Amino acid sequence: MSSSLLETSANLDVEIKLDGSAIPTSVIEGDAAPQGFCVFGNTSSTISLSVQNKVSLFEDRCIGRVSIQIGTLLDTCSDDKTAALETKSTNSDAVTTGIIFVKLRRLGNHAGPANLGNQQNTVKLMDKNNLSQSFVLSNIQAGSHQRDLEASDLFAVSVRLLERFQTVGDSADIDSAISNLQKAVELTDDENLNKSIYLSHLGNSQQTRFRRFGKLADIENAISSHQKAVELMDDEHPHKPIFLTNLGISQRTRFGRLGKSVDIGNAISNHQQAVELTHDGHPDKPGRFTNLGNSQLTRFRSFGELADIENAIFNQQKAVELTGHGHPIRPSLLANLGDSQGQRFERLGQLGDIENAISNKRKAVELMDDGHPNKPKCVSSLGNSQHARFKLLGELADIENAISNHQMAVDLINGGHPDKPMYLSNLGNSQVTRFNHLGRLADLENSISNHQKAVELTDDEHPRKPGFLSNLGVSHEIHFTHRGELAHLENAISNQKKAVKLTIDGHPNKPLFLSNLGSTQGVRFKHLGDLADIDDAISNLHRAVELTDDGLPAKPDYLSNLSSSQGIRFGQLGDRLASLGISQYTRFECLGELADIENAISNLQKAVKLADDGQPDKPLYLSNLSGCQRTRFKRLGELADIENAVLNARKAVDLTDSGDPGLSDFLLNLGNCQDSRFEHLGEEADLAAAVSAFKQAAQSNTAFPSSALSAARQWAEVSRRSGNLLSALEGYRAALELLPKVAWLGLDPRSHRDQLLRDRSENLACLATTCAIRLGHLDEAVELLDMGRSVYWQQASSLRSDLEALKQADKELANELETIGRKLDTGSFSDPSPIDIEHTAGIKSLTKEEIGRERRSLVSKWDSLVERVRKIPEFACFLKPTQFHQLRQAATIGRVIIINSSEHGVDALIFGRTGAIEHVPLSSIDSKKLAEMTGNIVLNRSADVRGTLQRNHIANDLQKVLRMVWHMLLIPIFHKINIPLENNAGMPEHRIWWYLTGPLTFIPIHAAGPARGNIDVSRMIISSYVTTLDSLLQAQKKNVRGSAMQRRLVAISQPNTPGQNAIPNCTQEVMCVTEAAASAGWAQKDIVLMEGSDATVERVSTALDTCSWAHFACHGSQDSMSGRKSAFALHDGKLELGQIASKRLSLGQFAFLSACHAASGLKELPGEAMHLAAGLQFAGFPSVIATMWGISDEDAPKVADHVYQYLFRNGMEGLDPSDAATALNRAVQALRDSKDPQMTIDRWAPFIHFGI
């Protein structure tokens, strides 16, 4: 060195670049013994060395540089020579500013450690949270011991391998790097300073592998390596702070995996020591401050000690203050400071903290290019803070920006990046929050998708995997809660169980995962009623509470959940704190143990006390506490309980923003509390306040449909109970309008059925009808009944609406609606199962969940399009319930008779196409009696008409019920419409469509009659049955349009179906049908007979597409679960209801279902008409003959023969499917008039007609 340089050598740096880019160990400081560095390149590569004078802490000035090709340098340094390289001025190449002495040693094909006099390496490898450091070798001379040379070679290769791993991600590289470093350590004596360097590099590499692959052994070994490096180094050595820093980072990393407090304590201690050993002007001081602050932040997150977060902010603030504005690590330091400020906000709720957090993180992001390796992490962190501020202030821009930033973080990194799952999970969390605020289903679907990706991208051994699983479970639970699909609830519990299983007991997140699991188990108990679920819920929530200190902010949640579960366990027999309370409440409602409700209230009171008014979940805790206090009041009658319940419920409402979807739940609870106090004290003000709260909750634009529906029912019921029938009717209508939004088309079949059962859809429509009747609003009564029946068929029917008029007004909108409708229609009648779809890149398999997600997305688009249509003035009523003046047009001839049964009365409504509706009160019977007398008929329906059980059923049940129906229901009705109660000498002429509700749906009312005599309904009138008036109206319209259509008959016969009992007479039956058709003039080419092995599922399904008349003579079955798997048994399998209903049979006119149970329906949902007959009607057959239960193989051919003889009586020109009801009536009369002494009522009564 020249003397001018030597005088200031302590302030000099040498920056080394290879081909213009800084190499991994690229800066060497002065003021130390000779140091080495590694260069990897070929002989044509250019190495540049720049000497820089450190003017100040943050400013360097280049005073000389030299560049030389490696090949030239090798030649110059051959034979162990030292090269003297002149540095030139940056202003003029003619000015020499100094000399750098270089000595080279060849490592294989690489130029390896070169010695620069008077320099020391201080290279930093930096990420956002951990400023770890690595080194080059020191004191390596050409004459060193062979073992040292071999070790240094291994070290040099490992550095290159590690660099390639960080770029390419090949695990073989990191494995080889670690192996080489382990050998280098083994080859080096403890007295050699390089051993500490090798150990530190080894520890960093092991930690890198742990972060990528999550193997616990790697982080254990990393800590061991760093610990040894520290122990080998004196405190006075300038490298000691670096080794302490790396050790602290590894200990903090292991804490994140195992949650042992000793690790994070040791990490803080080592970082503190590193700070103390570093003088204030040292360039690494800011990094060591921030590492210390990060560890203090980590401990605060786990244990909640306020001093930790205060110290973290202090140290991270110091780091920022010591770093110049242009310094490359400043963005990371700002981001770290923002993280700590955000955490203090979460604890103390001070707006200034979250404002500062967002400000600092935004500055950090602005200082980074998109290519900066820490940009994704900073952007995601900014999104987290914006998410937190949204929860406090509710500003929509914050959650929009949060989602945007989380999405940017995801987009900025490739799929193999180890942090990708974390960014996906953060994005999913924000999307859930926006769903909770706006109720957009797409957000919830996207949340589940992103959480699922995070889980799939993460190995089970990775420390973040449990958190990703728990987040996924929470999103699934929210989906179930608001949309009712059971698969989401099962997925929620499955994922949360995995999260708990993957987390050791001492881990700080274990209570959170236990609380989430317990809460979801409580939800499943409410849905399915399995006591094991509520017991498991309370057990898990108890553990969550026990593992959480009182000072931690999560404790109120756990107490609240536990309290609710303890409460629910009571009913049938007489944040972790919050979760525990909810579960205790649940168990109280079930088992009635007073201790459960006491514990629930106690835990919820603690939760409320621990939560500030500004805490987002405080209203939830108050509402849950209120519910528990109301429950205890109902048990013990203590006035203080209901007073406190009302007070806390009102506080919950007052603390909730008007746009919050949760407000409707709090209003519902407030209304319930006020109603309970009204019942106890009789204060009219309480009654009015309760109804007002229910109404406000039901009409809220932001309420979730399920919450709004519950509120509407309460509105109606409380109003009715108080005698305000007008208010009650308004509430019932609101509830019926909400019903399709709760039991919506996006649900799978089982969940749709379960939702209708939970919401008691049949009961709701009947109650609304009774209320309207009592007010004399008979037109409205009919409309309301039709709204609440066959919900699924009506929803599916809307997808097939005639859009011709709309096309005239807005063709593009109509086409878009038609496209979405057809897509939805395709999947409406089948369970989602994995399928393959074609993509340009090949075949992609869609999972059941993906199919469901796609369907729900289509439903949302459909709803949006329908709202757009209704904004067109002439289409304001588009797809809204049909009004009575239109519905009555379904009765083209004859009358419709509705018999409505509810807990408030039984009534008949009678009307035709014109004239006033006639009302017949049926006060001699009530709904309870009807349910009792029809129950056995439903239970004892049998396909074996010859068995002893069936004969007993006839004698003891069916005839007795039909006699009661005759006397209590039909005689008053027939008197009202002047139908004489006597046997007509001729055939009946009166046509009646029976519209029955509740348990009456299963009664063959056409077979009712007195105990003696030869008179009954079948001999007096021609009967048909109605599923809904709207479906009958559509069938009538189709019959008019299709009167001149081409006719084609398909007849199916299955005398010997594999796996079924033989029914040999079906061959004769079908032969009679086809012969009758031919005799009537049907062309032979238009008569398709499919018998035995010819009648496969595929062939029959295809034949239906082009037929106008269809006859099935085969076995039939009713699916007792959802109904959609009801089926005809064909030669090679089942032709199910779902497959039939998915068709659009434009040519269909008449179908005869000569099969058992073709019109049985669901016991618990009779009004849904989920049976084969309804499916054929929906698919396009306006007139259908079917069976209510099992039929005799002997009788079916006789009935079919008589039916077709009547229908074909006038030849082809006289064919009319609306004659089918008359034809069936005559056929049954012929069957009854036969000489068979065994012709009992159960043999002729199951044959019924639906439609025109």
Automatic annotation (TrEMBL):
Q: Where is the CHAT domain?
A: 960-1251
Q: Which protein are we looking at?
A: CHAT domain-containing protein
User: Which Pfam family, any one, appears in the UniProt record?
Assistant: CHAT
Which key words tag this protein in UniProt? Coiled coil
Residues forming coiled coils: 796-823
Q: Which organism is it from?
A: Piloderma croceum (strain F 1598)
InterPro entries per UniProt: CHAT_dom (IPR024983), TPR-like_helical_dom_sf (IPR011990)
> Could you tell me which SUPFAM superfamilies the record lists for this protein?
HCP-like (SSF81901)
